[in-house]
Design goal:
The complex is a heterodimer of chains A (138) and B (381). Chain A is an all-beta fold and 138 residues long. Chain A has no helices and 10 strands. Chain A has a single domain (5-130), classed as Rieske [2Fe-2S] iron-sulphur domain (Rieske Iron-sulfur Protein, 3-layer Sandwich), CATH 2.102.10.10. In chain B, helix 5 (164-174) packs parallel to helix 6 and helix 10 (277-291) packs parallel to helix 12 (325-333). The chains are: A mainly beta (138), B alpha/beta (381).
């Protein structure tokens, strides 16, 4: 893999904590999130049925436990598909139920100065922000 | 008698015989009066049998004065017993151990047959005290009259699902006897995954006894309902929908984490069919992906627990429009190691060993007829 190409997406003001944006990079959509100051970027397509992940809720999950016991964890680390609720670790893109075979692609995203910068494998030709409907984080 | 399995070829040598283990054979008594010697006086009194037998006003009145099992409320327009299986001594089909061994085991090359009471079960009887005592009596009767008569007979022992404490005592009493290979737990309206049953599951796992479920009198007494949307009008409708009970209970067992708590415990669902299995697995797996927070104890896909811990009796095998599709269904579910041949002898809807799986490849047939049962029951206890 060659050196990653950086793309400035928007100013940091446009992606404040609790906010999310949808970006189109050539033909692909990427959803970007600011969760309490931590930035994440994932492909905007659930691997299951292609639903737009930018509308997904972010929460935690019940950790593996003994029968009839519950332990909540990974708070704010799980991005869920807005249709069926499949959960993905927002840091790694790994699904909760099959980390190896079912993943959503993640991208490196950082705040550099006042800009939000995305890192891609190749130089994109067209990058644009797409307007989304109101996102309600449940 | 037709005997394709054992027939000789033109050269006179015997063809390779497919060994058969039959997971569902029914032993009948000619009359409940056969149980009288095994009952104490108080049980005879409470069942109105023996010296306390009521005569129904010389047969003129069907009344609750006579003992009646919880029974199927549907009327089979034919015969529930196959009419080619009367014993030469006049016994009704399934009531003469010597003849059953000859008519079924010798003919089908059966190594072992698991006897499951299906005409005499009291798990769903409202009075649990009577049910407990009846179960012990029946277990003793079956052991003495069948298990001890021919080493090929094995049995699932009756226990009362509504009384786990008594069930455990009964398992402690006879669960390690040679020939007892499973626990016959009838359905009630308590789903099988519920904690109510765990004392039974604990000892069953420790003793290496699978839990065997067999339809009997669903929708009657304390038995579970047979239909999801309301009672059927006909036997045909009732019988065709029995598979729903297995599906519902398998979902309960998986989701409640029974196979996480009791990883070595096996459940045999006999006579509920199998063609619904791929759909149930797919549906549970799909839901687990989205709803797994409800059941975080499931470390694997639901279908994997089903494959590991559930076994299905094959009878009455579904007969697809194209017979070769049966193999497809088995492959779709990955059920090659889950299926146990069952004849259901002497019932009207039984499957003949020499005919039922002729469309399947030889190695799969051997699994269904023999290997899978060896891996499910301990016949050498």
């Amino acid at each position: 893999m060659g050196e990653l190409k950086s793309v400035t997406l928007c100013s940091a003001e446009d992606l404040q904590p609790g906010e999310r944006q949808l970006v189109k990079v050539d033909g692909s959509e990427i959803a970007i999130f600011n969760i309490n100051g931590q930035l994440y970027a994932v492909r905007n397509k659930c691997p299951h049925q292609g639903v737009s992940m930018v509308y997904g809720s972010i929460d935690g999950t019940m950790l593996p436990s003994d029968p009839h016991t519950y332990q909540y964890g990974k708070h704010n680390e799980i991005l869920r598909c807005p249709l069926h609720g499949w959960g993905f670790d927002i840091k790694t893109g790994e699904s909760l139920f099959d980390a190896e075979k079912c993943k959503i692609k993640t991208y490196d995203i950082r705040q550099e100065g006042d800009s939000i910068v995305l890192y891609l494998n190749k130089e994109p030709k067209i990058v644009s922000l797409i307007e989304t409907n109101a996102c309600f984080v449940s | 008698m037709v005997n394709a399995i054992n027939e000789k070829n033109s050269a006179g040598s015997t063809k390779t015989k497919q060994l058969v283990i039959d997971s569902d054979v029914h032993s009948y008594f000619n009359s409940i009066e056969e149980l009288v010697p095994y009952c104490d006086e108080s049980l005879q009194k409470r069942l109105n049998i023996g010296p306390f037998k009521k005569k129904s006003f010389n047969g003129k009145v069907v009344s609750s004065g006579e003992f009646r099992f919880p029974e199927c409320r549907y009327i089979n327009p034919g015969s529930v017993l196959r009419l080619d299986a009367f014993s030469p001594n006049g016994s009704i089909p399934g009531a003469d151990p010597e003849f059953v061994a000859k008519d079924l085991f010798d003919r089908s090359n059966t190594v072992y047959g698991v006897l499951n009471s299906a005409n005499a079960t009291m798990g769903a009887f409202h009075n649990v005290e009577i049910a407990n005592e009846f179960n012990s009596v029946y277990n003793n009767w079956q052991y003495e009259n069948w298990i001890e008569k021919d080493a090929r007979y094995k049995m699932s022992m009756l226990v009362t699902p509504l009384d786990p404490v008594a069930a455990v005592k009964e398992i402690e009493r006879i669960g390690k006897k040679p020939g007892v290979v499973a626990i016959n737990l009838q359905t009630t309206s308590i789903p099988l995954g519920k904690r109510h049953f765990y004392p039974i599951y604990e000892i069953a796992e420790a003793y290496g006894l699978p839990i065997l479920m067999h339809p009997d009198s669903e929708s009657s007494g304390e038995n579970g309902p047979a239909q999801a949307v309301g009672p059927a009008s006909t036997y045909m409708e009732w019988h065709a929908c029995l598979g729903l009970i297995a599906q519902r209970n398998i979902a309960s067992l998986v989701c409640e984490g029974v196979f996480e708590r009791f990883p070595k415990l096996k459940f045999v669902f006999a006579e509920y069919g199998m063609a619904w299995l791929p759909g149930l697995m797919w549906r549970l797996d799909k839901n687990w992906k989205a709803l797994r927070d409800e059941v975080p104890w499931l470390k694997n896909r639901p279908s994997e627990y089903i494959r590991r811990n559930v076994r299905l009796g094959t009878q009455p095998i579904e007969e697809p429009f194209r017979s070769k599709d049966l193999l497809e269904v088995i492959q779709m579910a990955g059920a090659e190691d889950m299926l146990l041949y069952s004849s259901d002898y002497p019932h009207w809807d039984g499957d003949e060993a020499d005919r039922v799986f002729n469309s399947l490849p030889k190695d799969l047939k051997n699994k269904i007829f023999y290997e899978n049962a060896l891996n499910t029951y301990n016949f050498n206890r």
